Amino acid sequence: MAFWKRKKPPESPTLPSRGDTSAVNKVDVDALAPPAADFLVSAVNLQSRLATLLAQCAEQAWSSADSEELMRAAGMAMDRYRAFDTLLGDYVDDVPLALAPGREKLARHLSRLDSSRWYENLTTAYVVTGFSRDFWHLLAQGMPKALTERAQGILADQGDEEAMARVLEGLLVSDERYRSRVSLWSRRLVGDVMLMCRDALSARAQASQDTEAPLEPVLTEVLGHHTRRLDRLGLTA
Prior knowledge:
Helix content: over 70%
CATH architecture: Up-down Bundle
CATH superfamily: Ferritin, core subunit, four-helix bundle
Structural class: mainly alpha
Number of helices: 10
Order of helices and strands: HHHHHHHHHH
Largest sheet: none
CATH topology: Ferritin
Strand content: under 5%
């Protein structure tokens, strides 16, 4: 669309090495990555929703200590939102207009994950934060070099996952009955979170029947991190 016209000259498509043992290579990600503007739109919308969700959990938490932990986590999500929003302004002429369609689609996904129990909503925030961070970090490899480095820096964990984990750990220790509820809820989340990730792919990848081949190793790596995240809480992925 016209409002996604790049305002700056295109950057070099050469990708940097991640310098780690990731099983996902450049060819895999190039087959999935959207244009830079689309990548940033999905990142902005997601961080905005996570900040809102965490703030709501903070308001409903059962102790002031938990509330403070979650407000700090909400602030970190808001910092990411602002950073991605600023970057998006370099790629689109009208940021609110660019964000609107994806925001509505994401809201529909998250509405299916809404719960009347604050700790289930916190589990949603914990799972979505970690899963999406890993996925968008890998997807960023398909961006121009400067944007790859900037996006991966913004996505880096600043302690928000640890804050959420501490609150959930305290809940699980307080009463063992919560463990089965949270475990069941976390398993329920995965399908919808994977759909959110699919929405971040390029339109061509979403429409192609050949997308599964490059997507499988990406999701396998992300699911591995997700499993370790739940293991840390003594939950079953």
